[in-house]
Write a structure and sequence with these properties.
The structure is a single chain. The protein is α+β, with helices and mostly antiparallel strands. It has three domains: about 300 residues, PAS domain (Beta-Lactamase, 2-Layer Sandwich), CATH 3.30.450; about 150 residues, GAF domain (Beta-Lactamase, 2-Layer Sandwich), CATH 3.30.450.40; about 200 residues, Nucleotide cyclase, GGDEF domain (Alpha-Beta Plaits), CATH 3.30.70.1230. The protein has 16 helices and 32 strands. The strands form five sheets. Strands 1, 2, 3, 4, 5, 6, 7, 8 and 9 form a nine-stranded antiparallel β-sheet that branches. A hairpin with an 8-residue loop joins strand 15 and strand 16. Helix 1 packs antiparallel against helix 6, helix 6 packs antiparallel against helix 7 and helix 7 packs antiparallel against helix 10.
Length: about 775
């Protein structure tokens, strides 16, 4: 019977154990707590230092960004201011004469500007009639002039190329040029008022590069508007923005009031097509999550300084208006916060690493202190354990010495005191003493199970069943395995004896006399076997005289008187018969016959070891008590057929031809036998290692053999009853659907479900609970 694996040492002093644990806690806990407190203080100091430094650095970064905003605004204004003045001067000088006699003056003025002012890409003059004059940088010469004359017709577009002295070195007409200044954004915007007008970013018509234009109108005496303008290439502004150093990775952008890019440090601001021409993109159209988040923040919060989080990283966003440039332009600065405070975290990490080196030294010292303390405690505990083991062994020797009959060859009693002493000393689940009869049979002298306090004896193991175990035993050397199921020497022994009890490890010590193995001691699941091993070996040596005192013919219960010839003959006749009861079934008179209404019960025992356990203090084993109960139940219920075969008992009724009452007889017998078996197993502290099955149907009976002739029963009913017994729950009676239909009026059932029978398919089965 499986027991609990836990072992409680009753000799252990609880007060001493608590003192030992308190001492171990002080030896280990104090150094660990000291190191832990040191680490906590270092971490708290690091956190405080980081936050304080970050706050200071962010405050400084605000001042830095304010200064940077002012510097960028000033630089942009200074960069764009020449274009502003170029337009104002041209308006003041030329008025409405740029296309008349003063055209030469306009060309000379424009040439001076495009050569002397690098920010200005082109100088523009246009009127309301579509006349246009543009002075620009030449590709291989100092400057070129484009003249569009709309009035008087016909319309003509002419390019003039000038050298450094202002002399025309080339001229050609371009009839394919359909440029009309009146459709351009700088002309349309400037023509609406006398104020200075700034365009957003757009594509220049002539060289197809992105840029912006500043323009201003002049209204002539006749009311016709004239517009003067200057183009500024975005490449120049982008180079200026990219030259700004903002932290390590910060960037500056110029945007208008709608969030559209005017200038970018990357130079790529034209991404969106509008009627075939690229136009300036908004910040959220650049496929940059940081700029998209900044644009959303700008739309909600407007200008100012904000902290935005993108992908778990913080960015400082600053939007500052450009007061002297553009139409509602602003400078947008995006810089990662780590660019300002990253060095603080880096410095703190360095300080933390240096602090951790101090902690590592403290941990090392604490570890050495703990190791020394633990080693001292362990040595003290080992000494105490050894002393305790010696005390236990001394007590064990005293206990055995008090019972001198254990090793007395003249005594035939089982060595119960020895098995109990060994089990307690080794804290083992079970200890057994075996006697070897010849070299073929192991006889169990006594087995003690510590969990239940029960003794077992009389079991015999044959060499044919355990060939590897016998081979290892007869070598005369102790052998042991932590997992007997995996050891080839013990696997067979494990399946028969250890597995039903839940044991796993096994120590086998042979008992030798004059160099020959005469027995063995088996110790299962010894929790304290290390300290008890020598005592087990000594006990095996002392058992040698006890083992050899009994001859091989002695049975498990001492020598038997010689049987009389009559008894021997009677025994030899009955040894061939398995019948326990045959009332009404004389083997000499019955021939082969089919019984269509037979009721069959099969009682199956599932634990061979349990059947060999002694029944209380009686001299018979449990199986004998069960068989006697079977015979008594069969007599009470008029069961005519009862036979035992191995671990199965077969009972049957219904041989008289009618079969009307046979199912009830078998059911009553099954219930009575179930109750008797449960009581017998419980009295012997065993699990319910039996199952019962019943079927009603066709069976075949016949007398077999010569002398003595035996009556045998087989067929479908017997087979079905065996299936029911094999699949029943332990300690229950399971019946087929055929038996249920015959018994349901008088007996109480519960459904078990369906089972599959080879050759006949699936059918319902039921559990017989009792009689109604």
């Amino acid at each position: 019977m499986p027991g609990n694996n836990s072992v409680i040492d009753v000799n252990l002093d609880p007060l001493s154990e608590r003192r030992r644990r308190r001492r171990a806690l002080l030896r280990i806990g104090l150094p660990v707590a000291g190191v832990a407190l040191m680490i906590v203080f270092i971490v708290l100091i690091a956190i405080y230092s980081t936050r304080a430094n970050q706050s200071g650095v962010l405050a400084l970064s605000d001042d830095l960004l304010n200064d940077l905003d002012g510097r960028i605004a000033l630089a942009v204004a200074s960069y764009l201011d020449p274009a502003d003045r170029v337009v104002n001067i041209a308006r003041s000088i030329l008025h409405d004469q740029a296309f008349g006699e003063e055209r030469t003056l306009a060309i000379n003025y424009g040439a001076i500007i495009v050569i002397g002012v690098p920010q200005v890409e082109d100088v523009l003059f246009a009127d309301a009639d579509g006349n246009y004059l543009m002075v620009r940088h030449g590709e291989s010469n100092p400057f070129d002039v484009k003249v569009v004359r709309s009035l008087p017709p016909p319309r003509r577009v002419t390019w003039f190329h000038f050298d450094a002295s202002g002399k025309i070195i080339g001229q050609e007409d371009d009839p394919t040029d359909e440029f009309d200044p009146r459709t351009r954004p700088w002309f349309i915007g400037a023509a609406k008022s006398d104020a200075l007008f700034w365009t957003g970013a757009y594509i220049f018509y002539t060289d197809r590069k992105p840029g912006l234009t500043v323009a201003r109108r002049y209204v002539g005496a006749d009311g016709r508007p004239f517009v003067f303008g200057a183009d500024i290439s975005l490449d120049a502004i982008s180079k200026f923005l990219s030259s700004l150093q903002i932290g390590r990775t910060g960037q500056a952008f110029i945007i208008d009031g709608d969030g559209r890019l005017v200038a970018s440090p990357t130079g790529s601001v034209m991404v969106k097509e509008d009627k075939g021409d690229p136009v300036a993109a908004r910040l959220d159209e650049l496929d940059d999550p940081v700029l998209t988040r900044a644009y959303d923040e700008y739309r909600v919060e407007g200008r100012g300084r904000h902290i935005v989080d993108v992908g778990g990283r913080s960015y400082i966003e600053s939007v500052t208006p450009l007061a002297n440039a553009g139409e509602n332009w602003s400078v947008l600065i995006i810089v990662p916060q780590d660019d300002f405070v990253g060095f603080v975290a880096s410095n703190n990490r360095n300080v933390l690493f240096m602090s951790l080196s101090v902690v590592a030294v403290a941990v090392l010292l604490a570890g050495l202190l703990i190791r020394q303390g633990v080693r001292a405690d362990r040595n003290a505990r080992l000494l105490a354990d050894r002393q305790h083991a010696l005390d236990r062994q001394s007590a064990a020797f005293a206990s055995i010495a008090a019972d001198a009959s254990v090793f007395d060859p003249a005594q035939g009693e089982a060595p119960r005191n020895l098995t109990e002493t060994l089990a307690d000393l080794a804290a083992a689940r079970r200890v057994g003493v075996w006697r070897l009869a010849g070299d073929r049979i192991l006889h169990l002298e006594d087995s003690f199970e510590r969990a239940t306090g029960g003794h077992t004896e009389g079991l015999e193991l044959h060499r044919l069943e355990l060939p590897q175990f016998f081979l290892a035993l007869l070598k005369g050397q102790p052998f042991e395995a932590a997992d007997a199921a995996r050891d080839p020497r013990m696997a067979e022994f494990y399946r028969l004896l250890l597995q039903p009890f839940g044991s796993r490890s096994l120590l086998v010590v042979p008992v030798e006399r004059h160099g020959a193995v005469v027995g063995a001691i088996s110790v299962e699941d010894g929790a304290q076997l290390a300290t008890a091993r020598n005592f087990v070996l000594a006990s095996a040596n002392m058992l040698a005289s006890h083992m050899t005192a009994a001859p091989d013919a002695v049975g498990p219960r001492g020598p038997r008187a010689a049987a009389t010839p009559a008894e021997s003959a009677k025994t030899s006749v009955r040894s061939f018969s398995a019948e326990l009861r045959e009332r009404g079934t004389d083997p000499e008179t019955l021939g082969a016959e089919i019984y269509s209404d037979a009721a069959v019960m099969v009682l199956r025992f599932t634990d061979a070891v349990a059947m060999a356990v002694k029944a209380g203090e009686q001299t018979h084993c449990l199986s004998n008590e069960i068989v006697c109960a079977l015979q008594e139940v069969a007599a009470q219920n008029d069961i005519t057929y009862l036979k035992i075969v191995g671990q199965e008992v077969i009972a049957a009724a219904g041989f008289n031809g009618s079969g009307a009452g046979s199912p009830g007889q078998i059911a009553d017998a099954a219930l009575a036998m179930r109750d008797r078996c449960i009581a017998l197993f419980e009295d012997n502290d065993q699990l319910q290692a039996f199952r019962i099955g019943i079927d009603c149907g066709v069976a075949i009976g016949s007398s077999l053999g010569s002398q003595p002739r035996v009556f045998n029963l087989w067929g479908e009913a017997v087979h079905a009853a065996e299936l029911m017994a094999a699949s029943a729950l332990p300690g229950t009676v399971q019946v087929t659907e055929a038996a249920y239909n015959k018994l349901r009026q008088d007996f109480l059932f519960r459904s078990r479900g369906r089972f599959y029978a080879p050759g006949s398919g699936s059918a319902h089965s039921f559990v017989l609970a009792g009689r109604l």
